[in-house]
Amino acid sequence: MAHFTKATSVKDWLNQRMAVEKLEKVMMSEYWIPKNINFLWAMGMVLVITFALLLVSGIFLLMYYQPNVATAFDSVNYTIMREVDFGWLWRHVHGVAASVVFLIIYIHMFTGIYYGSYKKGREMIWISGMLLFVAFSAEAFSGYMLPWGQMSYWAGMVITNLFSGGSLHADGLVEWIRGDYVPAQAFLTRFFMLHVLLIPLAIMGLIGLHFGALRIPHVNNQDGEEIDFDVEAKKYLDGDKAGSKVMRFANDFMAKDMMVVGVYLVFFFYLVFYNYGFAMDPVNFDPADGLKTPAHIYPEWYFLWSYEILRPFSIDVGLIAFAFAQVIFMLLPFLDRSPNTVPASRRGAFKYWFWLMLINMIILTAMGKLPPAGIFSTIGFVSAILFIVMWIALPFITASEKKV
Amino acid sequence: MHNSSRRGFMGKAFGAVAGVGAVGSLVAMKKSWDPLPSVKAAGFTTLDMSIYQENELIVEKWRGKPIFVLKKTADMVAKQTEVQKVRDIVVDGSHYMVCIGLCTHLGCIPAYDAAAEGFLCACHGGQFDFSGMVTHVPPPRGFDIPPFKVDGKKLVLGEAGPEYTQMKETGVTL
Amino acid sequence: MKNKEPLILAVVIFFSLVTYYLVEPFAHHEMHKHVESEGFAYADLPEITKTGDAVNGKALVTGAAACTGCHSIKKDGLPAMMEPQMAAASYGVNPPDLSNAGVVFDAKFLSDLIKNPAHALKVEHKYDAAKGKMHPMVPFYGAGGDMDQEVADMVAYLKSIAVSEEELTPEIAFENACGRCHAVHYEKWTQIGEKPAFKHKKDELAFDIKVLEYQDSLKAYMGKLPPDLSMYIRSRGEHFISTLVENPQNQLEGTAMPRVGVTKHSMEKVIEYLEDAGDAKRHEREAIGKNVMIYIVIFALFALLWKKQVWKDLH
After folding, report:
1. How much is the ipTM here?
2. Is C197 an 8 Å CB contact of chain B?
3. Which CATH number fits domain A10-297: 1.20.810.10, 3.30.2350.10, 3.90.940.10, 1.10.10.10?
């Protein structure tokens, strides 16, 4: 048994049993963050806040939502939106947050790509982050099923049909996933289980992994400078706060985090109250009808680039391209053959690769929303090919990069 | 140093503002937990008193609970004691016993014996008379009377009329 | 080291706005054609030239014009002769009560409707007299005098018994203009009237059966059951609904839905009814939104001030 003495204060009592002071130093006040970072570094905290908004609003929706095909739609649009006090507020917060979280995820992701925060010791941060992207995608998809509107039903139909594997005709697998021949009661309740329990648990676990993977390599900085954290930390602790290249996570970095969060929340709540149509598609305000397909079906905006890679090709080729697109980002740390961990602006050809990838994904997103016809179909096809070619070219471009 | 106390102040000020938001959110959350308007509206049941037959117990429903409605015979009315009279409910000239049909001992629903003009609770042997008074232990008090309001030939349960208020104030019912 | 943050912010905002624009306004514009409102002018219908006499109008409506042979006028003590589902089974459709027709519907429309129902309702593609398919409503062929004057008199009578424009409620507007075909279950509205609360299951089921029988007749009459409108204000939006009601053929070519001939004012009341059904908390949302926006700006301001204070010794 460890040695315990009479406690001198509450803090001392907790300290002897749980080492709270050491924990606080490691996680907060002596977790050193480089000073030369910009507001993009606050996106992680913005994501945590948005996830918290989703959790809390989700709790109140969960109190009144009914996962039954006959009552689901009305439990949302009548009970929650009309009867529950502030029910409309939780629904709007939940829907807008579910959409905006992906905007922040993409900004966060592309920040990482730009500054090389996936390289040299930070590979696990990148991989756990991409796994979080997959988990959030599954969470968003399963959540969208729940209101049981027309888009819920038909998106459910189309996406589960992907698992038939084109020419493989794995219809048995599709029926097994659904629990029925078509999206019906079994489908709804299992996606309810995924959305409310299993995937949130996975997300929380992955967030823990993501933070854990970040702790030892430390946060990157906007100049790609290699910082000796021990030396700089000593400078700070000796009193030279201005001269040190690092700062405390709490409260130095957190203060800037909170400022960015403040601005973000102004934007967020503006959307919640005044401009939420993009997050709550009109088609989903029609109750699900298995005998009537809507004139236009499309996924939520954050899936469109991926959807557009699937569409222009024949079913088998499309499925292969789609699978490629889901996995390829995960392999970035290993496809990038250059030794430079500096911002893209200083990496020669990679600079162009970055901006072209970003613009191409926006084009894919835009085309994915439009009916696949005429000029839009052509642009989508070219963009999809370009996406694949750019990833294949990446190892070659980066291998010939000059050491900075 | 005055710097760190200023910084401490701003941090506390920000914390206070954040706290206001947190309190606001908690208020909204508490209200979301409140019973829904449709639940509160269902808290009223209107009984058409013209349909009941003498000495025939009918069980109605109010707020999920059974309600005993017993139309008293002329004989019952005549032999009522003072204690029984204060529990009597008169609607359109007829006399009724209207009460929550749950034994006041531990909540079972007693059965009515029309011949014996009384109730017997199967759970622990408690007995009540035709006015709802206890005639055999273990129940601690007579049947509880729900809030009611006489409205012509109807009785509205869930609304407190003058007769009910009187009963409550004089301790006839809880 | 110069501060790159304003540039970075500009780049992030730029790409976000471009994406938003392409995915929302641009895409929706490509997917849905834009239909302009005609201002409820009913330009295809003839102008009114006569001033109507309500007294003579009443005599005609209850007499020579035989309107009350099918139509009830509850306000003037003339109740419906059959239950709605019986009427629907007999005529194909339930003839509306005319108590408030004078305020809900446009005068030019009513005048044309009385003389040529299929034309006013824009269902001539379904009911072509030449092909022998007659609209259930018998047109008015005149009562021996100046037909235009007689029609004007009847319209004047309908206007005289209806509530005033100021008194027109969203419920009256909706029930008259849309309620005979469209249910709104969020408001407990069925095509045969508002569903009451029943004590006994048997009575509730009897009512439901009447609704279903009515809906069967309606399905046969229209070709398919007109949809429940509870959430239509959010799934279709105000502009689509207004332009659709004004002239269904403009939005849904070939549709069986008739042009119902509402005035601009009635249309606004119908929209209000649909908003109360499908967007009931909009006023609360606006009120709370304002307060939350003020609060969150203050929050961001205090966060900024805290940050500035903390970072003073870090630079």
Report:
1. 0.93
2. no
3. 1.20.810.10
